[in-house]
Amino acid sequence: WRCFVASPHHGNNHHINPDDDDAIAAAAGGDHVVGGGASVVIRNPSEDTSPYAMFSPASIVNNFEPMIPLMRIHNYLPSALIALVGGMSSQGIHALAHPTLLVVIALSSLVALASCLLNSYFDFAAGVDQEGPLPSGKVSPEKALFLSFVMYLACFTAIAFLDPPPLRHVVAASALITVVYTPLLKPATAIKNVSVAFVISAAAVAGSLAATAGNWAAVAKLPPIFLFLCVVAREIVMDITDVEEDADANVRTIPVRFGTHNAARIVEAFLLSAACILVAGASLAAPHVLASQGLVGRFAAMGVGALAAHSIGSALTMARSLTRVCGGARVGTTEEEMKNKAQLTVDAIMRPVGAGTIALAYASSFL
């Protein structure tokens, strides 16, 4: 067997005797492998590591199942639905008649999977991932990186043939941001939060552009704006849950730089702005719904609107509670209590992300 150490201190690809604890610690850059920020993989010496054996189609297929957790495949359906909802917000059910929308849905999902796989590779190389398929040796780092490259190559090839140009530019920009996110954007305060929100909301914009043949004037504006605001809020709350770890790693997130109390106040501001967008969309669409829909349609619209209003109200209430907890950290609130409240807030924000976006897409179809 061989010991593979990925260390941020001494680079990658160190093959070390797995019984030599001192050598492993030295390569890790510290007294302990985990403390030194390194990931360790044990490999069988009989494994064929030639380029053909490592990257052959058969090898990739055989190793695909262990890569599924790295790609976070549960993100596939939400990514597809955001693009679909974006298209239907402009053209209603008729959006499905546009083949370009189906291509955008597939690309949105593929970019999401490729970006998660690439991010998993970067986390392993930086020593962040200590327990996943990469450190365990179930997946080699080279194969994960290669499959990510193949997926991105397929994405950018398809993007090159997308028409009209505005649609191509939006999808290309979104995909490019996911490529540079971990090495360039993630360490920057606030930029990481805005980048994630832009990529997610851009899927709705791309879907709308695909359904309207690239007509910016006909693109539904409210759903992606609402989605952007909610996702920024969610990302900041997730940073609050990791504030200790980020501070130790010198990652300058908003909670690290400005404090958890101020970060929670920023979350409230974003959610309140999202609520205003939701009210604006309902107000603008109400006359059209009343004029064009029967009794059943009116009740359906009221039901969707009520669900969205309740979900954003619950998220605001939870965010306000988080602000109080973070503000009370100086007078006795434990770190564990703050993290638990932050996690509950993340869950609460996810509800209006779905319900509010769908409600605004339905409202936008009347505008």
Sheet with the most strands: spatial strand order: 2-1-3
As a whole number of angstroms, the C-alpha radius of gyration is: 23 Å
Terminal CA distance reads 65 Å
Tally the helices: 16
Main beta sheet: 3 strands, antiparallel
Instruction: Count the beta strands.
Output: 3
Share in β-strands = under 5%
**Residue ranges: pLDDT <50 for 5 or more in a row?**
1-15, 28-39, 41-46
Return the structural class. mainly alpha
Shape: globular
Mean pLDDT: 80
In short:
The chain has 367 residues and is mostly helical.
Write a concise keyword list for the protein shown above.
367 residues, mainly alpha, 16 helices, globular, 72% helix
Give the topology.
Layout: E1 2-7, E2 11-16, H1 21-28, E3 39-43, H2 51-55, H3 57-62, H4 64-71, H5 76-91, H6 99-125, H7 133-136, H8 141-160, H9 165-185, H10 191-211, H11 222-241, H12 243-248, H13 254-258, H14 260-292, H15 295-327, H16 335-364
Antiparallel strand pairs: 1-2, 1-3
Helix pairs in contact: 5-6, 5-10, 5-16, 6-8, 6-9, 6-10, 8-9, 9-10, 10-11, 11-14, 11-16, 14-15, 14-16, 15-16
